[in-house]
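Hey, I was hoping to borrow your eyes for a little while. There's a protein on my desk that I can't quite get my head around. The fold is given in discrete form, as structure tokens running alongside the sequence. I'd be grateful if you could look everything over and explain what you see. Here's the protein in full, and shout if anything looks odd to you:
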Amino acid sequence: MVTKNATWAYRDAFDGFARTYFRRFGEGVVSSVGLGTYLGEPTDDVDDAYHETVVKALENGINVVDTAVNYRAQRSERVVGRALADADVDREAVLVATKGGFVPFDGERPADPAAYVREQYLDTGVVEREDLVRGIHCIAPGFVDDQLDRSLSNLDVDTVDLYYVHNPETQLEERSREAVYDQLEETFTLLERRAAAGDIRHYGVATWRCFRVPPDHDAYLSLPAVVDRARAASDEAGTASTHLRAIQLPFNVHMADAFTVEAHESVEGPQSALRFAHDAGLGVFTSASLGQGDLARAGSIPDPVAAKLAGETPAQRALNFARSAPGVTSSLVGTSTPEHLAENLAAGTFEPMGARAFDGTFE
């Protein structure tokens, strides 16, 4: 399990990064560049590349690794687990994050996915048919409980440091917003109990659209409502305070809605997701920081914005844009090769924009 002392010691072992590269999360610190493991086919060759990359990342200044039980048919979690064991780094210095919500395959895509889901999840009672949306998504407590156990086994860890409920807005395709809030509260109650048992350190919500669209959008979920449900879950579980500590959402120069769309009510009026999360004490981990590679190409960042960003390559400037947003804890980038890893790590040697310069990119 990640600890305060180990993360601060990890930070002190590196002196080549810019001043704000390591940032506070809970009592400890984490790198503001994190490693994602979503991309790639479920093959042995990709496993090998990820293993080498994760080991090198951990040994060279990245202590945030993000995965999910469904990524690459559970292979991403398993290779992260092997890399944690093989890297010359204290396990307690690494924030390991994973997610549950999408029904995962096991090692490869089955010839008949529908039959696989039916046989492995519906017929066994792990998932109730009425809780399954689009045949692939479930956030009911029983399913999440099962998925957390699978993740602990895949990662070969005693504790998951940050466990996300994965894309809850998917449920809005077949049920009401209030019903989704109710199910989140039930699952948060489960996660509060798993936190009390030591199986997870913190939990959060990993999203794609729901926190960065306006309230009248079909995919909208209120971040204040989610926080309120987490507090209710803590009361129900009897924990001293809620273990909800983070959100994950896309953020990059072309997807800046989490900063620009003021969709979340507060005592100060409507706020953006980034602002509300910061005021609520939630860490923010950005996904799609390079737009799944699109922003690594020359000319992909508008010239007036690129001129304000430090970095030697488009990828570094794009990553530093995401790291510059107020309230961002760590920007995740999918990296499965050592070459890309070196470029992404070097982004951390440059200072991100200050708040005034960042605001100026939207004028």
Notes: The longest helix spans residues 177-196. The longest strand covers residues 160-166.
